[in-house]
Fold:
Amino acid sequence: MLSALFLVLLPLPETRNTCALQSPDTVHYSLVPFHFIWEIIHSRSIVWPQPSTYVRVLKDSVLLQAAFNFLLLLPFGVYLRYFFQHRGNWKKALGLGFALSLFYETTQITGIYGIYNCPYRIFDVDDLILNSTGALFGFIIAPVILALFPSRRNLIAKAEKMQESPLVPPMPQLLAVLVDYLLIKISWTLTLGLFSTSEFAEFLYTTILFVILFAVVPFYWGGKTIGTHILRFNLTTLDGGTPPWPSFLKRSFALYLPLAASWLLRFFNGIELDMDSKLYPYHVWISVAAIAFLFMMWVILVIHVTVVLFKKGKRNFYFDDVANLVPRKNNV
Structure:
């Protein structure tokens, strides 16, 4: 949907005064159905008495534009078939395709609803026809495409089976960590980050928030961080009990260690020494060793995460393993 919208709107004009870029008699709409066929027939690239020129129609810009307008909402029709299932709902697919295309054309003719004082693309009835029929065609041929993917029934059955297990799959665990980390970054950007560009201040702020979000919060919230609460699981001991505070502290330290090492390398590389200084060779060798260490560390982490994801819950992530914690789904 976003790709289709971007194709319809981009590139945006450099100025909001688009009227100044157009002549006063500019027409911003085309209301003649199938006008693109007339344009193809009267195209200069085709000489009708000469059949050898017919192949040029395949490269004609008018035909290509019509073809891509037809394909624009074809995936939308496939998605509609996936959710509606029954082929008898083709009228709904056609209507929804038309409604979506009308939304695009209205957005164009209004200059994105007044952002630009004149439209920079035209309202074309042919686009409505081609987009709508493309969505309908996608709805009709959807079974051929959907045969390559798991059926909706199988996905629902798999989801129900996963819900029966108290253990949490690896991907939600990673997403929970990502949510908590993004909260730290966003909170810095919207608070102290508005007034300070100091890397050390950001490092100190991130360190403190890491301890709070990954150690203090779960200790007082029954093993839940904000991220795990959103993903509906909490951290427990191996026997399902409430973990002690050292476990959460170990987990936060294990999570933060790779980031802290990266920060320290950046800080060390920021030190400028004169090449004539006696410390310069040591600085170079330490920098090379630190870069090599970080490279190996991140490679090992990527391999570890990949293995855990492929094991599908049979192995824990290192940060839970060192803290003897087990992610379990909430009872409610």
